[in-house]
Write a structure and sequence with these properties.
The protein is α/β, with parallel strands linked by helices and 317 residues long. The protein has two domains: 186 residues, inorganic pyrophosphatase (n-terminal core) (Alpha-Beta Complex), CATH 3.90.1640; 123 residues, Diaminopimelate Epimerase, Chain A, domain 1, CATH 3.10.310.30. It has a six-stranded mixed sheet with strand order 6-7-8-9-11-10. Strands 2-1-3-4-5 form a five-stranded parallel sheet. The protein is globular and about 60 Å long. The structure holds manganese (II) ion. The site of manganese (II) ion (MN) has 7 residues, from helix 2.
């Protein structure tokens, strides 16, 4: 399959690379690293990485302005399982299209699809693609891919990190000799206001008897602490490994987009099916949803609580 993807890349002089809306480091890293690798391997090709960026992740690199020419152009979509979540690209507009993804299959969106839903990250798949084809790489590209992988796996915390993950990281470390410590500083140093909000969440989280933990983060709280709403939502990743909590969620008011964003994590039952009922979805143990009101979010919480109750009965917890 990687050979097939490489052949398609070779065939086209114009290539557009897209990924999912609500950009995160893995989406951006897989996209930018693939672009840079294709540019390095084929300097004569025009390659664009498109979509809405985020000031938070500028350290990963810059996106491109697409000139809106679709003839003889290949689209590659990374890290995105479904059509409606592709940022700024419609596969049907392009001459050909390829999907590279690690989410559970949702629907076919591209002509050629490489899906490995046990891979840690889209970045890991791009690492493998570069390893197994003549695509070139350098230290910067290797660092970008490492950041994507580390971010999606929360520093190798999940079972999605298999022996292949470590094998690839080992190969890249040996070849490109980047500093893990320097990269972690770039990724993890954060402002005091965010740490303070984290303290607020710990103190005020609602925890049910079934082991659901959740917190409402209103626009007022976001402003009082001086953080941005994306940072508040991302904080969900910091509440793993609490004895009394098996499923946890942040419910964040996003005034700008007039919606409530719910981020859910689990170390017990699968939660993506529940999230799908509320205009969301994602991975089995890491999902999100967008709802209109806090009341809707509470309905979602009740649903999660029920899921937990059944899970506990089934597993004798
Ligand atoms: Mn990903």
């Amino acid at each position: 399959m990687f050979k097939k993807i490489y052949k398609e890349i070779k065939k086209y002089d114009r290539i557009v690379i897209a990924r999912h809306i609500g950009v995160d480091p893995d989406a951006l890293a897989s996209q930018l690293a693939l672009r840079d690798s294709i540019r390095l391997s084929f300097p004569e090709k025009k390659v664009f990485a498109i979509g809405t960026g985020s000031a938070k992740f500028t350290y990963l690199g810059k996106l491109d302005k697409f000139d809106d020419v679709y003839e003889n152009t290949l689209l590659i979509v990374t890290d995105t399982p479904d059509r409606k979540r592709i940022d700024s690209a419609d596969p049907d507009m392009f001459t050909s299209s390829i999907k590279i993804d690690h989410h559970p299959f949702v629907e076919k969106t591209c002509e050629l699809e490489y899906i490995d839903d046990i891979a840690s990250s889209a970045s890991e798949i791009v690492m493998q693609l570069i390893e197994e084809t003549k695509l070139e790489c350098n230290k910067e590209i290797a660092e970008t891919l490492f950041i994507g992988l580390v971010s999606d796996s929360n520093r190798f915390l999940f079972d999605s990190c298999g022996s292949n993950t470590f094998l690839l990281v080992s190969k890249y470390l040996e070849k490109y000799k980047f500093s893990i410590n320097k990269i972690y500083q770039k990724m993890y140093v954060r402002p005091l206001c965010e740490v303070r909000l984290e303290g607020y969440i710990s103190l005020n989280m609602t925890v049910t008897d079934n082991g659901l933990g959740y917190i409402k983060i209103t626009d007022k709280i976001i402003n009082d602490f001086g953080v941005d709403s994306a940072a508040a939502g991302n904080m969900v990743n910091n509440f793993n490994f609490i004895n009394e909590v098996l499923v946890w969620a942040t419910i964040t008011e996003d005034v700008k987009n007039n919606q409530i964003r719910v981020s859910i994590r689990s170390r017990g039952p699968e939660i993506n099916k529940v999230a799908e009922k509320y205009n969301g979805g994602g991975h089995k143990f890491a999902s999100g949803a967008k709802v209109k009101t806090f009341d809707d979010a509470i309905l979602l919480m009740n649903d999660l609580d029920k899921t937990l109750k059944n899970y506990k009965i089934k597993n004798n917890i």
